[in-house]
Amino acid sequence: MTQEQTSPGGPDLTRGVSPAELIEDKLLGHVGDQEILLVRAGAEIFAVDAHCTHYHGPLADGLVVDGSIRCPWHHACFDLRTGEATRAPAFSPLSCWRVEQRDGKIFVQVKLEPKTQSKPSAKPPADTPKRIVIVGSGAAGFAAAEMLRRQDFGGQIVMFGEEADGPVDRPNLSKDYLAGSAPEDWIPLKPENFYAEADIDLRVNTGIAKIDPQAHHVVTATGETVSYDRLLLATGAEPVRLPIPGAGLPHVHTLRSLADSRAIINAAQGARRALVIGASFIGLETAAALRARDIEVHVVAPEKRPMERVLGPQMGDFVRALHEEHGVIFHLEDTVVSIDGRNATLKSGGVMEADVVVVGVGVRPRLALAEGAGLALDRGVVVDTHLETSVSGIYAAGDIARWPDPYSGESIRVEHWVVAERQGQAAARNMLGQREVFDAVPFFWSQHYDVPINYVGHAEQWDEIVVDGDINARDCLLRYKHKGRTLAVASIYRDVASLQAELAMEQGAAV
Ligand SMILES: Cc1cc2nc3c(=O)[nH]c(=O)nc-3n(C[C@H](O)[C@H](O)[C@H](O)COP(=O)(O)OP(=O)(O)OC[C@H]3O[C@@H](n4cnc5c(N)ncnc54)[C@H](O)[C@@H]3O)c2cc1C
């Protein structure tokens, strides 16, 4: 999914269009060279930018729900009245345009001034925090800080991150950026001046070594103490390292940070052959990116089919064939037992020479701080429906959080970009005293060459997979069912159906 510049399509909305031209409540038109979407929601008609502010997804193909529109690509949501990006992964609002109806026609001519977002009531409650500390400057941490300011929180925000860079578009690091087709300026989630302007004290390169819940402070790795009134833990996950000889060699990489992605790009310059260990999402996205750089790519993984555990055998076979079409060579049901110089020895006995090795064998949540602070843990940090941990005033979000998921009825922990951001947003509101239940349906996407796979819901196991459409034709929707109930849906180019499944799960309806 690349950001495309298209010439404006549809009718000139300054000349007026008939309401009958709104097919299925939407009409794509333009004002000058600006593409505008007309949307009917109930009795009203709105005019907004036609493209999502996240990755420029076409909102004309999105879903209108209760005065809002959802993007077909990564399920961001915008309020049609104000343009506000109400749900991640978009953060910037859409521009809104004035809609005039006269002589039986709809005219759009004037862009409206951006509306100030919904403000809390005039006087903040007495226990409004003065300083909120966020540990982790990734998806959840960033989304929380941004939402705190959007909620007009006037106190201090201090956000710590161990990485050298501020919040970045992590999913891109194994996709377009690694492939060399995304420019540098796509990668920061916000330009550098955003943090100063929003008065967010972002401290990069600063690890937190300890939390003292009794004293209400955190201690940095260099010994500085910073007190908090509310604390958000969003420390994410770290790549699992292989316990094999040679795993620490300089040409053996893992991929989590922008620095990691850059190191792989550097290593790829002039490389002839790459070895990817692990057929996970990150492993295979890396394989695709390296193929785009014309490097021979071998994937070694213990499973029979890539991604079978998450997506099932049918999608696993498809993903394998897709990568093979692009020249990836698989060595499945095999592992690497040692790396000696450029030579990797396989369990099956072969030796493979590779200039660069990328290990993508999964991640583990970073729980040391939570554990040290005595927070309840259960394969993650246990949080309640409001994302609060077992210690009052300390919240957790993102890859570390295990939360009660209302749709599956289970406590789950996932490693999804959009979930982390939405949890960050909900935690921000809850740290300000709103008792919002986190009930967003999990969503993730993965991209392999020109094929996006979208996934809604959560199915750790299933007894049936129902396939609508044709996976090989890249036009399909798979339902993962357990005892007759659809727990999750994966799709390729069935974006509206994916959005509809998300909505049905939110409403507790059958999918
Ligand atoms: C290359 C890549 C591609 C991905 N692609 C997709 C995708 O396509 N779709 C999808 O849904 N998901 C994807 N993911 C997963 C997604 O990025 C994660 O689920 C998401 O980033 C989790 O957000 P988080 O805030 O919990 O953690 P992170 O974004 O990892 O942020 C954690 C932050 O905490 C900091 N930190 C940790 N410990 C400390 C400490 N002690 N002190 C200070 N700071 C600390 C880290 O430095 C980091 O900044 C991808 C992940 C990677 C690595």
Automatic annotation (TrEMBL):
User: What protein does this entry describe?
Assistant: Rieske 2Fe-2S domain-containing protein
Tell me yes or no: is Metal-binding among this UniProt entry's keywords.
Answer: yes
Task: List keywords of the entry alphabetically.
Answer: 2Fe-2S, FAD, Flavoprotein, Iron, Iron-sulfur, Metal-binding, Oxidoreductase
The record's listing under InterPro entries reads: FAD-oxidoreductase/Apoptosis, FAD/NAD-bd_sf, FAD/NAD-binding_dom, FAD/NAD-linked_Rdtase_dimer_sf, Reductase_C, Rieske_2Fe-2S, Rieske_2Fe-2S_sf
GO cellular component terms listed in the entry, alphabetical order: cytoplasm
Traced from the root, the source organism's taxonomic lineage reads: Bacteria, Pseudomonadati, Pseudomonadota, Alphaproteobacteria, Hyphomicrobiales
Species this protein is from: Afipia massiliensis
The molecular function terms of the Gene Ontology recorded here are: 2 iron, 2 sulfur cluster binding; metal ion binding; oxidoreductase activity, acting on NAD(P)H
Q: Which residues form the Rieske domain?
A: 14-108
Co-factor(s)? FAD
